[in-house]
Amino acid sequence: MNGLPVDVATDWTRGGPRFVLAVCDECSNTSYLPAEHCSRCGARGRTPRVAVGTGTCVAVTWVHVTVDGGDPAGLVLVELDEGPVVMGRTAERELRPGDGVGVAFEPSGAGRGLVPVFSRKA
Amino acid sequence: MSAFVTGVGLTPFGRLPGRDSLDWQCAAAHLAVDDADLEVGEVDAVITGYSTVAGHLMPANLFAERFGIRPAVAFGTSVGGATGLAMVDQARALIESGKARHVLVVAGEDRASGQTRATSTKVLAQVGHPAYEVPLGGTVPGYYALLASRYLWSYGLAEDALAPLPVQMREHAGRKVGAQFQKPITVLDVRTSRPVAEPLRLLDCCPVSDGGAAFVVSARATSDRAVRIAGTGQAHRHQHLTAMEPGNTGAAVAAARAFEEADLDTSDVHVFGIYDSFSITVAMLVEELGLVPPGRAGSYARAGAFASDGRYPMNTHGGLLSYGHSGVAGGMAHLAEVVTQLRGERGAGQVDHCRVGYVHADGGVLSAHVGVVLVRGTA
Ligand SMILES: [Zn+2]
After folding, report:
1. A37 vs chain B: nearest CA distance in angstroms?
2. Do A20 and A40 lie in a common domain?
3. Quick check: B141 and A63 CB within 8 A?
4. Residues A51-61: pLDDT tens digits?
5. What is the distance between the alpha carbons of residues B155 and B152, in angstroms, rounded to a whole number?
6. Does B149 contact chain A (CB < 8 Å)?
7. Which residues of chain A make contact with B131, given a CB cutoff of 8 A?
8. Does some domain include residue A1?
9. Which residues of chain B are under the pLDDT cut of 70?
10. Hey, is the C-beta of B135 within 8 angstroms of any chain A C-beta?
């Protein structure tokens, strides 16, 4: 990143190749989507944590009727090793729930930003 | 003070071009007001659901002017598929607070004829997170397909495990005038229909429909056909799929709140109306509500548990899967059906000896939940 320190706030939705989780300072609940308070205990204080990017695939779909009318798109839910579930893409037809997976952040193809793409761990 | 459903209006659903959103709303409202045996001038509050085809800042005012009434209270509501029952909950609150005597709850749209399927898919996909989900290319069927994938894997089920649910809904629809689809289907038909978002196939998914639905909720029974709203409960635990807790989506919490108010429980219920946007939706709901064990909704359906003479008669109008899904009105059809059952007016599809009904709807991706307990009788 041009020698600059990694800004943990810059996750994939803002162009940074990473998942950034939030760990509750009070109850250690770890969450993914932005929220002002911990959904478990209501505390405000959270500490960002960069996810390693590995986990277990828990759901796979191939979307045939796509928003843009394109080819079937692979979509997955992955339970990260840190706990939270994230949504991502996959290009692997063989991927099944239960498989261990790792993430790569790739250009979305829509001309803007990155998206998480999961594949089975070698 | 109790609140009563005194009137229900449900139009046929389907691809029925020629009416716009307000036309459908008015058609359903006429039916409901007539059913309640009221003059329109007696309606003193209006609550309306959104239309995805004709979005408006002030949908209740828009409707009231067009219908030709001047209520003391009017507002729109928007909690996705749970909107219809949320409006009933609000109507009941207006009645019980004394703010209104007769509340007209109404929704309808030309969702099938008034927009292209591509537009419909794109509009509905916005229930996904705009930054974390929508850019990945998900759709509403895609989100529910992820739930289905996880469900099948969690319980070690084959891909046809959910198919008996749409088959049962279709059988019900065969005995309901106005249903969009009535031709019987089999498990094989479901599994060989074209994939929409694997593992969900076309027949696992509700259609997009034109149609309307309306209720009158009143402070007094206007006839001996009135049905009492014995309890209502809501839960809102997440918006986006990524934030959902499997097994604790809010369905059970909402139902528990409704049954506690009614001083009843699910074992007291004779007829159910459970939101069924997809086969997986109704499976997850009946399991979280505790009607059937986890992972067993499909096998219970196959055994006839949700038939009119089964242990849990459910969606006897055919549900969203076969009666059709006209947006907010789609989730209201379940309540219209349960009221009709409790009145003993369901004809060929009548459930014997039914006195207590439970209706449950969810919006988004099992995000917003509303449950309503209904009891026959005017006391
Ligand atoms: Zn916390």
Report:
1. 13
2. yes
3. yes
4. 999 999 999 99
5. 6
6. yes
7. 13
8. no
9. 379
10. yes
DSSP E strand stretches across A1-122: 20-24, 30-31, 46-50, 54-63, 73-80, 85-90, 100-107, 114-120
Instruction: Dump pLDDT digits (tens) for A7-53.
Output: 557 999 999 999 999 999 999 999 999 999 999 999 999 999 999 99
Q: Suggest the residue from B119, B127, B139 to mutate for an interface test with chain A (most A CBs closer than 10 A).
A: B139
Taking the domains of chain B in order of start, what are their residue ranges? 4-114+212-376
- The architecture that CATH gives domain B4-114+212-376 is 3-Layer(aba) Sandwich (3.40)
**Is residue A20 one of the residues assigned to a domain?**
yes
**Beta-carbon contacts of residue A5 (< 8 Å; ≥ 6 apart):** none
Q: Are residues A12 and A59 in the same domain?
A: no
Find the Cα–Cα–Cα–Cα dihedral B202, B205, B209, B215, rounded to 10°: 160
Q: Is A91 on the interface with B (CB under 8 A)?
A: no
Phi, psi for residue B317 in degrees, rounded to 5: -90, -10
Q: Do B132 and A98 touch (CB under 8 A)?
A: no
Contact A78, A19 (CB under 8 A): no
**Which of A 4-23 lie inside 8 A of B, CB atoms?**
13
State how far the alpha carbon of B29 is from the alpha carbons of B7, B33, B145, in Å: 9, 6, 35
pTM for the whole structure: 0.96
Domain span including residue A10: 6-50
Counted across chains A and B, CB pairs separated by less than 8 A come out at: 104
